[in-house]
TrEMBL record:
Keywords: Metal-binding, Repeat, Transferase, Ubl conjugation pathway, Zinc, Zinc-finger. Residues 1-25, 52-78, 110-137 form the C3H1-type domain. Residues 82-107 have a biased composition (Polar residues). Residues 659-876 form the RING-type domain. InterPro entries: IBR_dom, LUBAC_E3_Ligases, TRIAD_supradom, Znf-CCCH_4, Znf_C2H2_type, Znf_CCCH, Znf_CCCH_sf, Znf_RING/FYVE/PHD. Residues 82-109 are annotated as: Disordered. A zinc finger (C3H1-type) spans 1-25, 52-78, 110-137. It comes from Vermiconidia calcicola. This is RING-type E3 ubiquitin transferase. It comes from the Eukaryota. One of its GO terms (biological process) is proteasome-mediated ubiquitin-dependent protein catabolic process. One of its GO terms (molecular function) is ubiquitin binding. GO terms for cellular component: ubiquitin ligase complex.
Length: 883
């Protein structure tokens, strides 16, 4: 049979139906041009890949194309070539036979390049064989991504409350029964960065090294963060010991160790008082300008003082024009240099030509200009070296920065000290004269700073208010900075005015904490918000609609609002309406033919009579009865349709019986009853009141004791149980009262900041401390003496007491007249009006003898003391009634 010449050229369209022989000539095949198959009978022919469509298959890109190479669109491969592909590519320069072999290899299914999306699922891929790629690395990556998604989905699980709260500037951990188990202040810790460890040093080895230096500390309360490089290991240590960092640095230095330590201050609440600003006047000179006309001299002086004339862009001060004294008897009345003004604060680098150029009006030009000497001739860098030497005499510097040259009149330097004490000490350099400045004076100012870190979305929600506040801060000489990135933004305000920085800090705290949404004094909340369900998604819709941020706290059962105040009530209204709708579940009853006929013939009226209006709705199209109500109403509707009696239906609607019994607080039938785990029933209001007053009723540590069984129940209610029965606001109040009671009973250990409306606490100095550490409140920035608890600045306690003795003595006289004495333990004023001489301090619960002010732990020893030391308890005047 004759060979088909069209087939040899790759252009035969007849396929197997061609009457000529189709035979592949390997010697001439390389020159053949294969054609695209267009008939089913020609599928066996080689297909020219070059003539395939160039449009990319969108399903292949998504990994969903199931047609493989039969797809009419392009399947691109962007991954790295396989080893086989590289081998084939390298063989193209070899023999022709290899080329022919590669040409007729069956093309690989393009789906094999796409990772199988079923492989990462729990059941795995069940296709055998599967046309998609099964790669272990991709499988692991997919599993990691799946875990991330699951982690996001697990966010709707209820968070376990560890009962740790931040109150009064401290971190408080409550025990299972509500008393304070641990209280930590930022000042209780110290942090140090230790360098010089050998690369690969472990935490255990670091602990052994520190113990070898004589440090004994609790490993559990020590945090070690390692930073390892190729040459050494650096460790950041945080230890529950305020003096650890400084002592470690001193010991390593004294022992000439290869290790070195640098204390790192722990900024409480992102507040700092370790920075100082130093400035001094730039070099200046004076100039004398002579005029032949007094009016012109006055005009030029006025223009310089008003800033209309400036020298090299700087404002210059001018003296009043003065008339020169005439010399000699024959001096002329018209003297061309009779009027002189003196210009001061001229930049030191200015020349006579610069002064001339400053006077822009031709008519104001002086007759003569004489320049004075420059105030000092050293450079700013040389002065900064002298200043740094003076600062380092007061303490170790963390940083020292000379500001770039500016057009201002002063040279500025910012310095950070390692300790706040050193920064305050350095302020004594203020107004000190320096010889290097030609007796010019330094200005040294302590700078307080406060900063908060918030999510960028919260910053954007508050941006309008922040911009308005920033204008006020600028007027009060405060600087404000925003460091913003995609996820978080840091807001920082700093200045030398303690009150203004404290006021700005309060505003920043309000911005970072947000506002708890309440409706009628009750927190806006529903149990439907515990999960990421419909209610949570609707909450996000409200958030987006109002362009605000609404955060939920599942542990506290609260919603926090971040945004303009005028939108908060709008948010409350929308969320309350949404939650009210969500709290009414919907039930559907599929009606069969008989039930549907019964409902249509009047049965719906019977259901409406039992359930009420607008509860049951008939959907005629789907033949369903929709119940918008409670589970009991749904069950009652089924009972009505099932022919139950009225009593049975009423029992279903009434639901389970409520806890029975009288409230042990008010002795009445419990209103809105709740039942404790020990089976005692309370009114909800009485139970809340009892929990809130438990702190004042507890003789020892805080506890909420059940008052059931006529007060004989010994059960102590746990915080988990209290959280079940109490609203979030009342529960947080209970924790706060427990904390406040804890502080009041320990006046020797903790005190509140004396600044009005501050509310932060601090740890008192130990009586054995000859020189207690200075303390600055991180909320109001007021320096407080932790020994005498007064604000006396640089004065000692004795000096301050001597200065304030006048007013102090007057106060003592008044208190003596009113029979008022201070508690010897916590200094709370007490007034005795009647009764015996046994007094109990309402603050610290100390038992006190009113005669000698002795303190006892219980009432019994106090009464025994009064009888033995004072001959009675102070009720001798009542003996006459006994006679």
């Amino acid at each position: 049979m004759t060979l088909c010449r069209y087939f040899q050229h790759g252009s035969c369209w007849n396929g197997d139906s061609c009457e000529y022989r189709h035979e592949r000539d390997l010697n001439t095949l390389r020159y053949a041009e294969p054609v695209v198959s267009c008939l089913p009978a020609i599928e066996g022919l080689f297909i020219n890949q070059q003539v395939r469509p160039t449009a990319i298959c969108k399903y292949f890109v998504q990994g969903k194309c199931t047609k493989g190479d039969a797809c009419g669109y392009l399947h691109p491969f962007t991954g790295p070539p396989s080893q086989e592909a590289q081998a084939d590519a390298s063989s193209t320069s070899g023999l022709g036979s290899r080329q022919h072999t590669n040409i007729f290899q069956e093309p690989q299914d393009s789906r094999a390049r796409v990772p199988c999306r079923f492989l990462s699922r729990p059941g795995g891929c069940r296709n055998n064989p599967c046309p998609f790629l099964h790669a272990e690395k991709d499988h692991e990556a997919e599993r990691n991504n799946a875990r991330d998604v699951e982690a996001d989905e697990d966010d709707d699980q209820e968070c376990e409350d560890d009962f740790t709260r931040s109150l009064a500037g401290a971190s408080i951990h409550f025990s299972a029964f509500g008393d304070v188990a641990d209280l930590l202040l930022p000042a209780d810790y110290s942090r140090a960065c230790v360098t010089g460890f050998v690369a690969g040093t472990t935490n255990e080895e670091i602990v052994d090294i520190l113990r070898g230096l004589g440090f004994e500390f609790d490993v559990e309360s020590t945090h070690i963060l390692l930073h390892t490089t190729s040459s050494e290991t650096k460790a950041t240590l945080k230890v529950k010991d305020p003096n650890f960092a400084k002592e470690l640095a001193t010991r390593l230095k004294n022992q000439h160790s290869t290790l070195s330590a640098m204390p790192i201050p722990i900024e409480a609440g992102q507040a700092s008082c370790r920075k100082v600003y130093i400035s001094w006047h730039k070099a200046t000179k004076s100039a004398w300008l002579n005029f032949g006309n007094g009016k012109i001299a006055y005009t030029v002086a006025e223009k310089f003082n008003k800033g209309e004339y400036k020298c090299r862009g700087q404002s210059v001060k001018s003296s009043t024009a003065k008339q020169s004294q005439r010399r000699g008897r024959g001096a002329l009345v018209h003297n061309p240099v009779a009027w002189t003004i003196t210009l001061s604060d001229i930049p030191g680098y200015a020349t006579q030509e610069d002064v001339k150029a400053a006077i822009t009006s031709f008519h104001d030009a002086p007759r003569h200009i004489e320049m004075g000497p420059v105030s000092y001739s050293v450079s700013d860098a040389e002065v900064s070296v002298e200043v740094r030497t003076l600062l380092e005499k007061h303490g170790q510097l963390e940083s020292f920065r000379l500001a770039p040259a500016s057009e201002g009149k002063r040279v500025k330097v910012s310095a950070w000290f390692g300790e706040e004490t050193d920064a305050r000490s350095a302020c004594s350099l203020n107004n000190q004269s320096l010889d290097i400045l030609g007796k010019g004076k330094l200005t040294v100012v302590l700078v307080q700073s406060a900063k908060v870190k918030v999510r960028t979305t919260i910053y954007l929600a508050w941006k309008k208010r922040i911009d308005e506040e920033a204008k006020t801060w600028k007027e009060n000489y405060l600087t404000f900075h925003v460091y913003q990135d995609a996820s978080h933004s840091t807001l920082k305000v700093e200045g030398s005015s303690t009150k203004e920085v404290a006021r700005a800090r309060k505003i920043l705290n309000e911005i970072s904490e947000g506002v708890v949404l309440t409706d009628g004094g009750t927190s806006v909340w529903s149990s439907t918000l515990d999960s990421n369900g419909v209610a949570y998604r609707n909450l996000k819709v409200v958030e987006k609609e109002l362009q605000v941020v609404i955060d939920r706290s599942k542990s506290k059962r609260q919603l926090r609002f971040y945004g303009p105040p005028e939108k908060s009530q709008q948010a409350v209204h929308l969320i309350s309406a949404m939650l009210e709708k969500e709290c009414q579940p919907t039930y559907e009853i599929d009606l069969d033919r008989n039930q549907f006929a019964w409902v249509m013939k009047g049965g719906s009226k019977g259901i409406e009579q039992v359930l009420g209006n607008d509860v049951a709705v008939l959907d005629v199209v789907s033949k369903k009865m929709v119940i918008r109500g409670t589970q009991q109403q749904y069950d009652a509707a089924l009972a009505v349709m099932g022919g139950s009696t009225d009593n049975e239906i009423r029992e279903i609607l009434d639901g389970p019986s409520e806890p029975e019994g009288n409230c042990p607080i008010c002795f009445c039938e419990a209103d809105a009853p709740i039942q404790t785990w020990c089976k005692h029933t309370y009114c909800l209001e009485c139970f809340e009141g009892a929990c809130q007053s438990a702190a004042s009723m507890s003789k020892g540590e805080f506890q909420v004791k059940c008052q059931g069984a006529d007060g004989t129940c010994s059960t102590i209610l746990s915080l988990h149980e209290l959280k079940t029965h109490l609203s979030s606001s009342v529960f947080e109040t209970v924790l706060k009262t427990s904390f406040e009671e804890y502080i009041q009973r320990r006046p020797d250990t903790f005190r509140y900041c004396p600044t009005p409306d501050c509310g932060c606490i601090y740890r008192c100095a130990i009586a054995s401390d000859a020189k207690p550490r200075p303390y600055t409140c991180r909320n109001c920035f007021e320096p407080i003496c932790t020994s005498c608890h007064a604000r006396h600045g640089d004065y000692s306690c004795a000096e301050y007491k001597d200065i304030a003795s006048g007013g102090y003595e007057a106060l003592q006289r008044l208190k003596s007249e009113l029979n008022i004495k201070d508690c010897p333990k916590c200094t709370t004023p007490m007034e005795k009006t009647e009764g015996c001489n046994h007094m109990t301090c309402v603050a610290c619960r100390a038992h006190i003898c009113w005669v000698c002010m002795s303190v006892f732990k219980a009432s019994g020893p106090c009464y025994a003391h009064m009888r033995e030391a004072h001959g009675g308890i102070g009720l001798d005047h009542l003996n006459r009634f006994a006679d």
